[in-house]
Amino acid sequence: MCGIVGYIGKQQAAPILLDGLAKLEYRGYDSAGVCVYGENGFEVAKVKGRLAGLNEMIDGGAAMRGSLGIGHTRWATHGAPSQRNSHPHISTNGKISVVHNGIIENYLILKEYLLAHGKSFVSDTDTEVAANLLEYYYELEGDLLAAARRAVEKLAGSYALGILCADCPNTLLAVKKDSPLIVGFGHEENFIASDVPAILRYTREVVYLNDGDMVLFRDGEAEFYNKLGEEVEKIPEHISWEMSAAEKGGFPHFMLKEIFEQPKALRATISDRVKGGRVDLGDVHLSPEYLRGIRRIYIVACGSAYYVGCVGKYILEKTCRIPVEPILASEFRYSEPVLGDDTLVIIISQSGETADTLAALREANELGAHTLAIVNVVGSAISKAAHDVIYTWAGPEIAVATTKAYSTQLSVLYLLALYIGDLLGTLSVEEYEAMLHALNKLPDLLADMLTEDYLAHIKQLAAELKDNHDVFFIGRNLDSATCLEGSLKLKEIAYVHSEAYAAGELKHGPISLIEDKTLVVAVAGVPELFEKTMSNVKEVKARGAEVLGLTTADLEDEIKKTVDRYLLVPKTHPLLQPSLNVVPLQIFSYYMALARGCDVDKPRNLAKSVTVE
Ligand code: F6R
Question: Residue 606 has what pLDDT?
């Protein structure tokens, strides 16, 4: 949440900062601001609302001269979105300018202290406390680095801070703890940013900072310090992916582009891990001896990643015969989970920085469980903290609503199910081969679905159904887990109230909400439960519901006997069917959002990575 960027070099900073912020807007878009160190010291511009407003205000950056600066795009935590609460924040005596991503948890105590020591505040933010604390120590120490060291000793919480000092025209300082921060090295210029796309146009040589690290750029040199204050050397890593991966590439929205990227992302995630007809997870530490001792698997995640875990429960239990409990990270961490070295904890996260998921992972590590993270962002906090990591090779996911990350996370659970089922001997040779064969074919099957006609059909359905205010998604077994994701998609981007229910559960309460024309989306992709789900469809139809059914192509004649409208997906291995079933639901939400005039890629109140509890 919140994106920060900083530049120090020979070019004009403001256009580079704006360009970087445009790539980080997915992290928050309540307000935006920049501070450039020019001839007359700090110059600050900030606006409430989207970055486009800031762009206009400073004429694409041309209105601010100076080759040192910091910028910010905000997802409000402390204080409403407003110009006053926008970053950068300037300290009382104008010495320090700060952009911040994270939360200073003890900001009220610090604020009281600083107020008593002559500092004043104009915003409601925790960030302004950091600016004033830095100034307070700078006035005592007379040195920016020393001041920052003393300030961070006092800060509790998470932060990536970009810091300028009015007395230091050639200096940019940055520090991080529990919020992401990278450093980029260009030719006679350096960068800081929350994420790689912000600086990829200028450099591919980056360093991922560790918690407690500081970087000081001064007079063209970069100095790195670790959390103990020792100067350390950092070797840059080369970013090999292309900028086009983080651009729309001709699609009207990132979400649609990412839906279309799913076959490629699945191929990338699966193919390297299947060698000679077997799943090979490289150096993951899951030996047969260890696996034989496992009594339980937790799958810990938030949002859609948690819903992947809900599908995963059915898959892993069926293939590995180990009890699997998907649990929300925000609940896991405060539930005194019963675990130890006989528990495998699978952590799922696209961003690798979700605050609750990261905290749950640390808790699981402390309690002695083996932790395995399924992560998309390389070098992220979660990928570093887990004992094992399996990357999803989805590429950068920019749309706030996840699609390709969800699909690739699910594919990793299939790989794991095969791997563990094989090692434990709980999968027969035939079952193993059938599932692996289907997994290899999955990207092509998915690609075949994404035809113009298929999309046009779903668009038409969305046009007909766009005015429904309440939607129920129902399904059984694996389908009930898919419904959770379908329902979330509709809520988050189309702002339609919807609920996902196990189909058999509806009559235990929520059926009282079914009225004339209430939309029910019935997912019926588990062949042996098809008739049961159709019975539930009949129950809601008897109460006036309009039903959109979803099933496999072979059951078309069957489903049309019962539902009002239907969507079909190709048939695959029963355990892999959710991977295909979710796709029309993604597309349906996309077109519902468009039909309802919503901002598909940047839905209200949301941000791509949730780094607050
Ligand atoms: C929904 C969505 C979110 C994320 C959740 C976890 O479309 O994207 O629900 O799945 O915020 O984020 P990560 O996977 O980054 O931990």
Answer: 85
- 269-300 per-position pLDDT tens digit: 999 999 999 999 988 999 999 999 999 999 99
Distance CA 64, CA 73 (A): 18
**Ligand 1 pocket test target in 299, 377, 402 with most atoms within 8 Å of CB:** 402
Strand 221-225 relative to strand 231-232: parallel, antiparallel, unpaired? antiparallel
Cβ neighbours, 10 Å, residue 448: 11
Give the chain's residues under pLDDT 70: none
Instruction: Specify the pLDDT at position 247.
Output: 82
The answer to whether 64 and 14 have CB atoms below 8 angstroms apart is yes
- 329 CA → ligand 1 middle, Å: 12
Angle at 214 between CA 208 and CA 220, to 5 degrees: 90
Beta strand 519-524 pairing with 274-275: unpaired
- Does this chain's domain 251-447 share its CATH topology with 452-595? yes
**Could you tell me whether strands 41-48 and 96-104 are parallel, antiparallel, or unpaired per DSSP bridges?**
unpaired
Give pLDDT, residue 77: 85
Task: Determine the distance separating the centroid of ligand 1 and the alpha carbon of 409, expressed in angstroms.
Answer: 11
Ligand 1 atom having least distance to the Cα of 400? 8
Per-residue pLDDT at 72: 97
pLDDT score of 423:
95
- Within 6 A (CB) of ligand 1 lie 302-305, 349-351, 354, 357, 401-402, 488, 492, 609-610
Residue 26's pLDDT is 86
What is the model's pLDDT at position 140?
A: 97
Quote the ligand 1 centre to 303 CA distance (angstroms). Answer: 5
Q: State residue 430's pLDDT score.
A: 97
Q: Which CATH superfamily is domain 3-244 in?
A: Aminohydrolase, N-terminal nucleophile (Ntn) domain (3.60.20.10)
Residue 577: what are its φ and ψ, rounded to 5°?
-55, -35
Nearest residue (CA) to ligand 1, atom 9: 303
pLDDT at 359: 94
**Cα–Cα separations (whole angstroms), residue 154 to 104, 105, 118, 181, 284:** 10, 11, 18, 20, 38
The pLDDT, as a whole number, for residue 214 is: 98
Atom 7 in ligand 1: which residue has the minimum CA distance?
401
Per-residue confidence (pLDDT) for residue 28, from 0 to 100: 84
Q: Write the CATH number of the domain with boundaries 452-595.
A: 3.40.50.10490
Residues ≥6 apart with Cβ < 8 Å to 296: 322, 323, 324, 325, 339, 342, 343, 344
DSSP output for 502-566: EGGGGGGTGGGG--TT-EEEEEE--GGGHHHHHHHHHHHHTTT-EEEEEEEGGGHHHHTTT-SEE
Q: Give the closest residue to 402 by CA, choosing from 269, 255, 500.
A: 255
Residue 233's pLDDT is 96
pLDDT value of residue 333: 85
User: Cα(287)–Cα(289) distance, rounded to whole angstroms?
Assistant: 5
CATH architecture of 251-447: 3-Layer(aba) Sandwich (3.40)
Which amino acid belongs to residue 14? A
Distance in angstroms (rounded) separating the CA atoms of residues 579 and 267: 13
Active site residues: 2, 608
